[in-house]
Amino acid sequence: METDHRVQGLANDQVAADWPALSEAELAWLRHHYPALEDGCDVLWHSPRPFSAAALVRSGPRRYLVKRHHARVRTAALLGEEHRFIAHLAAAGLPVVDVLHTRHGATAIERDSWTYELHAEGAGQDLYRDSPSWTPPSEPAHAREAGAVLARLHLAAADYHAPQRGTHLLVARDDLIRAPDPLSLLRSELPARPGLAAYLSRQPWEQDLQRAVLPWHAALANRLQIEPVLWGHNDWHVSNLLWLGQGAAARVATVFDFGLASPASALFDLATAIERNAIAWLDAGGAGPVAHADIALALLHGYRQVRPLSAAQVHLLADLLPLVHLDFALSEVEYFQGVTGSSANADVAWHTFLLGHADWFAGTAGRALLDTLHAAA
User: How far does Cα 62 stand from its chain's mean position?
Assistant: First the structure.
């Protein structure tokens, strides 16, 4: 396997991959299991995304995305949770990626310590292929279109009912922010989350969360608890969409990367979209992250054109924004500490992502963005 594969790092840089690139031997093995690959596999591109190994391959006249996960992160059963949601959305007419089946009808297959899935190449252009998450879109019109398609996804998901995900690892859930007492709930989860427990045992974590997170949680009161549970994408960034056309006229052609999907709420998914797209978290220049209020408002406008929100819901959306990253940030801490064994990356996930993002919203720029959303109600 390749040893010099580089992926996107946590500081908007290129770093050595935790997971080796897909090898010719693996692709040859997959050919025996996936009819779509029986004409051979030529690797065209290795993905720089860090949490798994993926490659765009050509087999005959068609192209496919092969994705490999470590079994500690995703089993075939866990991928099935995502694939069933994708299938429901496809049946409802949403332009989602096509998950392909093995000769025996499975959508994921396991071998040794790895789990594999295969997707057909989606329609459209990958305009943001080289853009990390949390990089704002180049056009407010793209944000408006993304907001509209997210609303369509939520309408399609309204009659989808499935249990909570079977893992916390690299999944975005809203259990903690819905809970009346997030610290008690997290404390109760730690015995079943040894990687997270090991990291937090070295931190004054309860004091940290009481300082940075709980004041925002108090502002939600009980309003989020009454929001209907709804399966969402939960990683709605323009780099997870394929596009038809250029510039302001571009339209979403395919939605992909449902790895963070879970039953949370529509407002949780929309708040995540604003956090991912409207704040340049990884901007290394200037005084720190820059808020793009025009992008946030474009996302909200596009969404409301398709799925109207009340003024009260928009106020709740704004109040939710400083907390929407909480569960996923904890899952990253757990992943880095318990799976890849990188305490340094776990530190970034805890101090920079979880605590740092919450603190940013308490500053001038963060407050201004929240005020803009409240004014849009």
Answer: 27
Q: Side-chain half-sphere of 243: how many Cα atoms within 13 Å?
A: 23
Q: Can you read off the two tokens belonging to residue 65?
A: 């995305």
Residue labelled with tokens 């090991």 = 198
Q: Mean pLDDT in the chain? A: 93
Strands 6-8 and 14-16 come out as: antiparallel
CA distances for 191 relative to 66, 71, 187, 201, 227, angstroms: 34, 20, 8, 12, 29
Angle at 100 between CA 98 and CA 103, to 5 degrees: 165
Is pLDDT at 16 greater than 80 in this prediction? no
- Domain 140-376 is in which class? alpha beta
Q: What is the pLDDT of residues 113-133, one digit of tens each?
A: 999 999 999 999 999 987 776
What is the C-alpha to C-alpha distance for residues 226 and 369, in angstroms, rounded to an integer?
25
Q: Of 70, 79, 35, which Cα lies nearest the Cα of 52?
A: 70
64 with 40: CB under 8 angstroms?
no
Lowest-confidence region among 43-57, 170-184, 203-217, 325-339:
43-57
Q: What are the structure tokens assigned to 28, written together?
A: 């040859």
**Which is it for strands 241-244 and 251-255: parallel, antiparallel or unpaired?**
antiparallel
Whole-angstrom Cα distance, residue 191 to residue 39?
47
5 token code pair? 């594969």
Does the structure show a pLDDT above 80 at 97? Answer: yes
**In the block, residue with structure tokens 């030529």:** 42
Q: What was the pLDDT predicted at 258?
A: 98
CATH 3.90.1200.10 in the chain, residues? 140-376
Token pair, residue 60, equals 């005959």
CATH 3.30.200.20 positions along the chain are: 6-120
Question: 63-95 burial, b if ≥16 CB within 10 A, otherwise e?
Answer: ebbbbbbbeebbbbebbbbbbebbebbbebebb
Contact call for residues 250 and 127 (beta carbons, < 8 A): yes
| Of the candidates 240, 230, 233, 65, the residue with the CA atom closest to the CA atom of residue 142 | 240
φ, ψ dihedrals at 200, nearest 5°: -65, -25
User: Per CATH, is 6-120 categorized as 3.90.550.10?
Assistant: no
pLDDT of residue 3: 43
